[in-house]
């Protein structure tokens, strides 16, 4: 029987409603959650690990580094087929992408959780865990980087984002949809996985900021970041990758101080491109030397910039944000 390591790391999947405050709090142990995944022993042997009982807004970058180290060790073991990690859903996409960027393995790593706590009707934790374990033992899931499994849908960590604050199918891949599904324990994929660079890091450069653009914003936040020694800036720009003209001075200042600036869009779908030549338009920003990250929410571009800045091999940031040549 194939063996899967399940690392428990808090989130709603481990929560119950505390009747005194009428709100969900961390309560269940890994063993208690596993005991609800009935019948899984017919598919895989499970080895459980307790990492934390944190709600995901409490996750730190240091936690991500520690998780990456732990999971690297687990996938190096010959007797372990794959790893499943539980995580609160709010920052799950960030940890999943962090692991994807820092663990080089053909083995399957799946991140899952629950949208409803064990006190609610339709608790989805046991189902998500069962389908994640089925994915972890699937031959077809190998070599696809870190996967996120919810509601019987599989998404690549590099592509997924939490798109709904309450629905069971909260995790979506903008532009494409899921990469695969788990249909009655059968794991099926619809398309190829786009491979990306894996970085070797031992700690994280944390001072990377994320700014969301809005109408008529100016350079005040950008100036604050330059003055406070930030090492990188991600801007969730408007539409195709444009900013209000008053932000241009701040971007120039950051670039002149050798602070890389990465532009993504605040739009859920589409991609950024140097389509507009007006003041603050994408063409102007591109010519100034910003990087475009084509289709990714700001919180994930921030993780990528942090990881790239933290790489042991001092990889050129330009290389990390080079446009995929198929996508001109
Ligand atoms: N707020 C919770 C968390 O991220 C939500 C969840 O797990 O679904 O920990």
From TrEMBL:
Asparaginase/glutaminase C-terminal domain segment(s): 207-315
Binding locations of substrate: 56, 89-90
Keyword Acetylation: no
CDD domains: L-asparaginase_II (cd08964)
Entry superkingdom: Bacteria
Active-site residues, record numbering mapped to chain: 12, 89
A single BP term in Gene Ontology: asparagine metabolic process
KW Hydrolase (keyword) present: yes
Residue span, L-asparaginase N-terminal domain: 3-193
GO molecular function, one term: asparaginase activity
Gene3D superfamilies: 3.40.50.40, L-asparaginase, N-terminal domain
Keywords: Hydrolase
Similarity-based family: Belongs to the asparaginase 1 family.
Protein name as annotated: Asparaginase
Lineage, opening ranks: Bacteria, Bacillati, Bacillota, Clostridia, Eubacteriales
